[in-house]
Amino acid sequence: MEYSWHLLVGLVVVAISAVTSESVNRRSSTSRVDNDVDYRLPNNTIPLHYDIRLVPFLENGNFTFGGEVTIDVMVVEQTSTIVLHAYDIDIDNDTVVVTSDNVTYAISNKTFNTDLHFYTLNFATSLEPGNYSIYIEYVGILSASMEGFYRSYYTTSSGETRWLATTQFEPVYARQAFPCFDEPALKARFTISIAHWPNQTAISNAAVASTSGADSTIENRVWTYFETTPLMSTYLVAFVVSDFEYQSNDDESFRVWARSDALNTTTYAVTVGQEILADMNDFTGIDYNLSFSKMDQIAIPDFSAGAMENWGLVTYRERLLLYKDGVATTRNKQNIATVIAHEFAHQWFGNLVSPLWWKYLWLNEGFATYFEYYSTATVETTWRLAEQFTVDYYHPALLADSLETSHPINEDVYSPSEINAIFDTISYSKAGSVIRMMQHFLGGPVFQAGLQLYLQNMAYGAATPDDLWEALTTANTNMSSPILHTHVDIKTVMDTWVNQKGYPLVTVTRNYTTATQEISQERFLLKGRGSSNDTTEYKWWIPINFASQANIAFTATAPSDWIRSQDDSVVISGFSPTQWVIYNVQQTGFYRVNYDDTNWGMISSYLQTSAYIIINVLNRAQLIDDSLNLARAGYLNYSVALPVTRYLTQETSYAPWAAAFTAFTYLNTMLANSTGYEDFKTYVLSRVTPIHESLGHEELSSDEHITKLHRLSVNSWACRMGSTTCREKAEELLLDYYSSSDPTDSTISADLKAWVYCEGLRNANTSVWNFLWERYLATDFSGEQTLILSSLGCSQDEDILNNYLALSISTNSSIRSQDTSSVFTSVYTASPSNVDVAFNFLVNNYEEISEFYGGMNRIGSMLQGLASRVVSSEQLQRLKDFVEEKQDVLGVALTSAQQAIELAEENISWLENYEADIVEWLAEEVAAIDEPQDSGSERVSFGILLMTISIGVIGFI
Ligand code: BES
Ligand code: ZN
């Protein structure tokens, strides 16, 4: 298991930045395995129905299960073999029987292929096309691996350990619970029966059909029999045996399950969940209850991903479902609502209509990511989720997709490790962002009608992107006045976005004499123009629109023009040479925009006037994200990009600040060792101080939802950039708490804990650290556990940190395996000096770490995390020495270790290219701030002047 992109961004929340989800473990691997082997099942046999009977043994010391499956199949062409998936289960070969119409077919031999996970039945004589049934008995292990049919546990308030058995099948683990045709397009119906103790409940995708009395053949366990499901993919099958309880709606068709001690934290999920399901019913025009008569959601104590959309039985990490008033943060609450929306969107996009193959995973995850925010927004209407979408998903997608190593949204994958690897930023965030782009260039009505048609056409089937384009095209044609230009073909456009990696940089070059603008496209690369040896011609169909100072068209998101893939450039005319233009209104197109220095200058100056608010808030976030990434990649000088951030002294909105904090996070890492670091801190602090002062560190009853998110990141940044008032306040609040008589009654508001704990711990002694560690051990609310774990790495004391790191790889630390990775990340993201502490720990303990995680894989991802923070040649050298010395033992981690060295080398060469420019700009800027006459406010008033005098006359810069 390795870190996901969510994890990597997520943990920074506490340390410094403001982002969306917190950590989840997402499997990923960058290595491609040998494609000469065929991982796909032959298509001679199709499953129709599975009858599965399971008996889990959940007693300490005996974590196994017995299974029995009858699969009705249709042989579609004559064959002498039937190939199924099975992995890590022990099939009793003697029990296997294949029949058709009461005739038994002799099996000459049965073979396992453990690489391909194939179980092959070879028949003495060929089977003719027709219906057959395959019967198999087997046993399996309820492992602690969080995949397949696995075990989890919790401790009751009286200290008793209780076990549960649960499932995680996506993408390729159903085969670890029962032999099956484990590919998403091979849909079948499932009839499931589970035996369990009378004091336990079994739940599954479908509702309970009936139950039995004690069965003496299995120590008087009882049986729960479930109704037969509609046609569905194997990866969506789920079942849980536990002693959990639930809260529900009146007719109990919508239930939320948790261990009984946590039952009172399920209320929010019951309420918001029903509202979101109703919204999705509405949007799709297809009633969820046509497929299943009930919806169960359940919080699982040990869970590998964040949540899983099993049809009718959605499983979650505890902190993504359980909400505890007063203890949970605003971010926790938002995550709960949006994760539910994500998984509920899958009930249509993924479950009703599944991808034909994992290559089209984005048809699941892209839509789920899109609805995660846009469906929640219909229920939680004041949360400003549209603004948050761009900074949480769209900007990170632009960043990830600007790497040479990116991949197309439609990516060929075959092996399990390749399949796991595409659960990434491209399939989630890029696809979600490209879907949002479609919504805007088609218009809401066509978009919705097209999606409804797609779902109707493909219901209970498996789709490709072409099915989607076709439905959208039909919907567009049916619309009486579509907004799409008639020369634009949806499939032609979309193929350029889903079949090639990367995205365009649109460059606007203005001719101030002729009042024309030439607009061209090229692929944007983070390492800079010309940094790639790739000779492929990357060109896109790009929807274009713009606003200008004279025509403030920031609400019109429909494209006014298109750059076609065959166009090198287009020319647009008719703008006043003395006024700015801004392209990509509300940043709905998936691309960056660069301008000539003059236009950038006009934008920067205008932002510093009181009229800055006229520029749409999403475009303000865009200007920051684009300019600083263009500079980072060498397309724009820092001396032009950094001035865009000057206006932040007057910015109060969340999205532009979130974009700025992301950009500053990079610079903060890179400049950590630089002579200009103090100037950097002074500059950022000077920008952040006004908003820091106005938000303060106290919650107000009048606070908007987003203000609470904003206050946390602003306070974290103010402290980090050296504000002594901030640091003193955090220390005071933590010490008050530490010395209070009742540690269960904290006066620190939940939303500020991450800031108070982290900043308060920096200079705190061991007993304060221990105090918080005790709070970690004492709470059984998962949201709070994660928050504390992520703060404990903020200490700057080497002994404390080493002790903490050691805990994370000790088997009796009481940190759940799903959470251990937060520890290492929380240490090295907390400060530049902690990077060295974490690195030394890794060097000194690599054997123990690999033993704890059962392999070297984790070392690889740890090295990469550290490498992204390497900023000195000494650090680089130490990294190289370690990898060289240990190359024989690194094994599977060697490739990622080598990539880590590359990452570190890139940092060093970036510094060689850009550090001097940045340091010079910062020095001048800081000198200007320090001048008695505050030139910052002069700039503002000059800007206001610019605006108030009839603007057309004054050329700026
Ligand atoms: N289908 C995924 C769960 C999943 C992730 C299965 C990776 C296999 C591998 C689920 O819908 C999902 O995307 N969950 C997210 C949570 C979310 C709100 C982004 C996750 O686990 O990170
Ligand atoms: Zn998903």
UniProtKB/TrEMBL annotation:
Pfam families linked to this entry: ERAP1_C, Peptidase_M1, Peptidase_M1_N
CDD domains: M1_APN-Q_like (cd09601)
Organism of this sequence: Neodiprion lecontei
Enzyme superclass (EC): hydrolase
InterPro entries registered for this protein in UniProt: Aminopeptidase_N-like_N (IPR045357), Aminopeptidase_N-like_N_sf (IPR042097), ERAP1-like_C_dom (IPR024571), M1_APN-typ (IPR034016), Peptidase_M1 (IPR001930), Peptidase_M1_aminopeptidases (IPR050344), Peptidase_M1_dom (IPR014782), Peptidase_M4/M1_CTD_sf (IPR027268)
Domain of life: Eukaryota
Annotated membrane topology: Lipid-anchor; GPI-anchor
Domain ERAP1-like C-terminal positions: 580-903
Similarity comment: family membership: Belongs to the peptidase M1 family.
EC number: 3.4.11.-
Keywords: Aminopeptidase, Glycoprotein, GPI-anchor, Hydrolase, Lipoprotein, Membrane, Metal-binding, Metalloprotease, Protease, Signal, Zinc
Ranges of residues in domain Aminopeptidase N-like N-terminal: 47-236
Stored Gene3D superfamilies: 1.25.50.20, 2.60.40.1910, Neutral Protease Domain 2, tricorn interacting facor f3 domain
Cellular location(s): Cell membrane
Residue span, Peptidase M1 membrane alanine aminopeptidase domain: 268-497
Signal peptide location: 1-21
First-listed, main subcellular location of the protein, grouped into a coarse class: membrane
Protein known as: Aminopeptidase
Cofactor note: Binds 1 zinc ion per subunit.
Keyword Signal: yes
Cofactor or coenzyme needed: Zn(2+)
